[in-house]
Every structure is written in structure tokens, then in C-alpha cells.
């Protein structure tokens, strides 16, 4: 297991450097966590929210999955990992904000846009196919606006996925109630890997605006 050895070496560097420099912070965290924001991000190895936002330990409650998708609210029995993470963040940790962060070159969004898994039979254990079906409506809209599946179409698909997740978040009653009461704010963002640029969704204007470096 050669990569495990690399992980262990990384841990040793962390223990000797980061952990040592944050001793007081880790002592506080030993008593519990109190993050004020939840980040719903893609599982892609290139978009680590803690690195992008230069966050200290314990600052963010993070859930990561394929394409940073929030499913719609469901009450069926099953293993609803993302929904459980949302419920824990909102009702137990009482975070004040949720940020959905999509990103450039997203494989999950690309699979949805190209229809890579369209021929996969539902309910047969093909989890990616079922998961990206959440983007079917958005995919159809993007395809209707683009005669070719080009870079512009992929970017639009990634941004539409963020909007789908925000809409799905608002189907959870305990999210909708808190947002309406002003106790919870929802945000959307898109991180461009190629540019290293973060874009924030202006829902009123339905556009993603780059974050200024000033």
C-alpha cells in the first residue's frame, strides 16, 4: 500500500506543523464543534473547500458528493446521507448559512450533459446514473440553448447544477422555514479550476459574479 505511506508522511507533517501551531484551537475543538456555515461541495479531488477558503479547523461543516448535489426532500426509508448531513448541520449545529459550490471541469455535470449514463437501467445498483438524473431537467434546458456541447455548455451545466441544488434545499421544510425567518441564508458559487476564480451566484439577477480580490 505505497500511497498509505504517503498519507502517513503527510500526517506526520501535519502533526509537526499545522497541529502544533493550532494547539489552542484543537483544544477548543476537543470540547465540540460550532461551525457557522455548511459547504455542499463536489467530491472532486481538485476542489477542497478548506483549501479554497483558507479555513481553520472547525470553521466549516462540509458535505461532498458527485457534482455537489442536494437531493430533494424525501420521507422514504433508506440511507439518505446528504439529507442527514443537511439535517444535522441545520437542526443540530444550527449553521446560519449554506453554500453550494460547484466547479469547473465537473465530471458529474459532464456525465449529465452528455447523457453518458442514459442507457443504464434504473434501480440496478448504478448509483452514478441515478444520482445525476437529478440534473435531467437542467440538462434538457442547457441542450435546448446550445446546438453543440462545447465548453460554454459545460460551464452552463455546472452553474445550473448549483441552482438545482438550491431549489432542492428549499424543499426541506426545516430549511425553508429558517430561510423565511431570516435564520438561514443559502448561497451558490462556482469555482473555476483553470482560473482559480470563485464566482458567487446573484439569485436576483440569475448570474454568477466573480469575487473581487480587493
Automatic annotation (TrEMBL):
Top-level taxon in the UniProt lineage: Bacteria
EC class name: lyase
InterPro entries: Beta_CA_cladeB, Carbonic_anhydrase, Carbonic_anhydrase_CS, Carbonic_anhydrase_sf
Entry cofactors: Zn(2+)
Catalytic activities: hydrogencarbonate + H(+) = CO2 + H2O
Family: Belongs to the beta-class carbonic anhydrase family.
Record's protein name: Carbonic anhydrase
Species this protein is from: Sphingomonas daechungensis
Amino acid at each position: 500500500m505505497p500511497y498509505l505511506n504517503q498519507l502517513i508522511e503527510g500526517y506526520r507533517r501535519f502533526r509537526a506543523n499545522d497541529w502544533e501551531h493550532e494547539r489552542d484551537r484543537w483544544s477548543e475543538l476537543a470540547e465540540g464543534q460550532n461551525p457557522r456555515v455548511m459547504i455542499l461541495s463536489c467530491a472532486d479531488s481538485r476542489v477542497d473547500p478548506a483549501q479554497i477558503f483558507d479555513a481553520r479547523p472547525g470553521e466549516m461543516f462540509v458535505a461532498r458528493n458527485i457534482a455537489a448535489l442536494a437531493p430533494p426532500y424525501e420521507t422514504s426509508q433508506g440511507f439518505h446521507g446528504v439529507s442527514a448531513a443537511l439535517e444535522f448541520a441545520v437542526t443540530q449545529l444550527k449553521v446560519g448559512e449554506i453554500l453550494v459550490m460547484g466547479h469547473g471541469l465537473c465530471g458529474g455535470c459532464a456525465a449529465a450533459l452528455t447523457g453518458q449514463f442514459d442507457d443504464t437501467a434504473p434501480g440496478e445498483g448504478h448509483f452514478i446514473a441515478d444520482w445525476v438524473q437529478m440534473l435531467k431537467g437542467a440538462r434538457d434546458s442547457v441542450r435546448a440553448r446550445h446546438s453543440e456541447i462545447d465548453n460554454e455548455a459545460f460551464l452552463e451545466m455546472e452553474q445550473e447544477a448549483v441552482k438545482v441544488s438550491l431549489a432542492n434545499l428549499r424543499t426541506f421544510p426545516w430549511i425553508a422555514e429558517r430561510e423565511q425567518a431570516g435564520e438561514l441564508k443559502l448561497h451558490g458559487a462556482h469555482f473555476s479550476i483553470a482560473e482559480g476564480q470563485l464566482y458567487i451566484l446573484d439569485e436576483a439577477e440569475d448570474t454568477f459574479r466573480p469575487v473581487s480580490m480587493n
